[in-house]
């Protein structure tokens, strides 16, 4: 770590950071007799520092060993989120910070075009087109802002761009940069070096104090590769960006879901030793559990037992229902599009966490959330259905969700017989669902289950298969005790 004094005079805030104030020195030899150059700030005398805005670390921060016994290294990949204007969650500070970093990248490439021997270690012919030289400089340059792979269809970056910075470590692998944690109260807690990596979990937000490192040049084939890195001088771990409310929960109506407002928590290890993560959603600057209002649909049920509530084979404590929708019914199309957008976002998250979820650089298989009854490729007009868990405790013989009729009667959660009769195969139902944790199984598959929070059954659509009924759920009265008020089969 540098022993230079850090003060307001030599520190540039994110708001005041501009590439127009920066100038690259001429190439010179460093102590190791290697070529280098330095990025100076014309507004600051001597060494200068840069404070970043709050940035997300999608992969967290961990040390890695070079080779056994050869020390450790650490870099932080900062995600430059919400930088597209006119999109939900747009962050003008991060957007401008990203723009200036890209202009610094352009400054390096411009210098490479002017000094091809020093930067590229190559002398071009005098009549070489400047555009050709520039394209070569782009290929040889390792930019500060990395856009990653492009989408094949849209040609746009698949993920948010990343800005990588370097953390110097001691011989024992501890960060040399001082670190502190900002608490929700606004106070700060200084962290011991051995505790820093435990706090740098995936998707944590940090503010960093950086200094520009020296430029590096490395021979690779016919040309030099070149780049300039940033070195971390201090780390400030931020509290959650949103004002969270522990029990706040708002269900989204069909068509209201915006993928940019979905948040996935840092990974945690469940009781089986596998990673899992929670989904939440930003609602009016509050963090809500991810919930949906599900449009009316039909209970598919088990055709073998004719029951509406189904169970996994040889279990009694894992009940679930399957709801099938008519694509032309109110709200169905919007709801299906919301779920498709959610699936796409979850796939993006899985790709960013391949190493921790799948021990690989490729995404595992996702358990289907939306399903269709036909095998193979299905037509878009084919109705969709989804599976929802019914939270239930077999020991207490009790459901932990609200089940009620369209007319407003709420069933006792321990009245299992009447619940089974009401939640019947073929009945029309509406529901409020909430997301369970994302699970990762055997580092091969992942999925996002949903469970029922509230289930409404249209009692007039319940088909009774014998001469019994649920009298309190039907308005019609009959004179004959054996006669029922709904259709029989």
What does this structure look like?
This protein is α+β, with helices and mostly antiparallel strands and 489 residues long. It has two domains: 8-241, no CATH class; 244-473, OB fold (Dihydrolipoamide Acetyltransferase, E2P) (Beta Barrel). The protein is 16% helix and 32% strand. A hairpin with a 5-residue loop joins β20 (268-269) and β21 (275-277).
Count of folded domains: 2
Broad structural category: alpha+beta
Q: State the helix count.
A: 7
Please give the largest β-sheet.
9 strands, mixed
| Coarse shape | elongated
Mean pLDDT: 87
What is the number of strand segments? 36
State the low-pLDDT regions, or none: 242-247, 466-489
Approximate helicity band: 10-25%
Radius of gyration: 29 Å
Distance between the termini: 81 Å
Q: Indicate the proportion of strand residues.
A: 25-35%
């Amino acid at each position: 770590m540098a022993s230079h004094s850090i003060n307001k005079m030599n520190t540039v805030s994110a708001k005041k950071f501009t590439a127009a104030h920066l100038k690259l020195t001429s190439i010179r030899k460093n102590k190791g007799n290697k070529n280098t150059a330095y990025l100076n700030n014309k507004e600051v005398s001597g060494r200068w520092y840069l404070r970043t805005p709050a940035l997300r670390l999608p992969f967290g921060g961990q040390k890695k060993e070079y080779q056994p016994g050869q020390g450790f290294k650490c870099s932080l990949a900062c995600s430059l989120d919400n930088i597209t204007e006119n999109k939900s969650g747009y962050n003008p500070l991060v957007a401008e910070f990203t723009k200036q970093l890209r202009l610094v990248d352009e400054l390096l490439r411009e210098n490479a075009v002017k000094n091809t021997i020093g930067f590229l270690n190559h002398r071009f012919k005098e009549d070489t087109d400047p555009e050709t030289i520039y394209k070569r400089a782009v290929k040889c340059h390792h930019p500060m802002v990395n856009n990653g792979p492009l989408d094949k269809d849209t040609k746009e970056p698949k993920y948010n761009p990343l800005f990588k910075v370097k953390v110097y470590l001691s011989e024992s692998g501890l960060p040399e940069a001082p670190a502190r944690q900002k608490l929700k109260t606004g106070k700060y807690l200084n962290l011991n070096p051995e505790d820093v990596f435990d706090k740098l979990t995936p998707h944590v937000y940090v503010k960093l104090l950086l200094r520009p490192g020296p430029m590096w040049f490395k021979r690779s084939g016919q040309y030099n590769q070149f780049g300039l890195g940033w070195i971390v001088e201090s780390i400030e771990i931020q509290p959650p960006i949103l004002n969270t409310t522990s029990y706040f929960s708002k269900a989204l109506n069909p068509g209201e879901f915006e993928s940019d407002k979905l948040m996935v928590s840092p990974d945690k290890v469940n009781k089986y030793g596998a990673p899992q993560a929670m989904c939440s959603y930003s609602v009016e600057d509050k963090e809500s559990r991810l919930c949906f209002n599900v449009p009316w649909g039909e209970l598919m049920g088990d055709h073998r037992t004719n029951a509406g509530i189904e169970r996994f084979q040889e279990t009694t404590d894992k009940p679930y229902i399957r709801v099938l929708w008519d694509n032309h019914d109110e709200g169905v199309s919007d709801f299906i599009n919301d779920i498709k957008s959610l699936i796409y976002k979850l796939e993006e998250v899985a790709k960013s966490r391949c190493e921790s979820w799948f021990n690989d650089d490729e995404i595992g298989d996702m358990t289907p959330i939306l399903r269709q009854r036909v095998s193979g490729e299905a037509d878009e007009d084919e109705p969709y259905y989804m599976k929802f868990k019914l939270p239930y405790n077999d020991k207490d013989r009790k459901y932990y969700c609200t089940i009620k009729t369209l007319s407003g009667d709420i069933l006792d959660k321990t009245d299992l017989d009447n619940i089974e009769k009401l939640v019947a195969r073929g009945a029309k139902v509406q529901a409020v669902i909430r997301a369970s944790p994302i699970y990762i199984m055997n580092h091969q598959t992942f999925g996002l289950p949903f469970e029922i929070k509230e289930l409404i059954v249209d009692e007039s659509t319940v088909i009774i298969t014998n001469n019994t009924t649920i009298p309190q759920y039907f308005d019609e009265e009959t004179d004959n005790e054996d006669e029922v008020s709904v259709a029989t089969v």
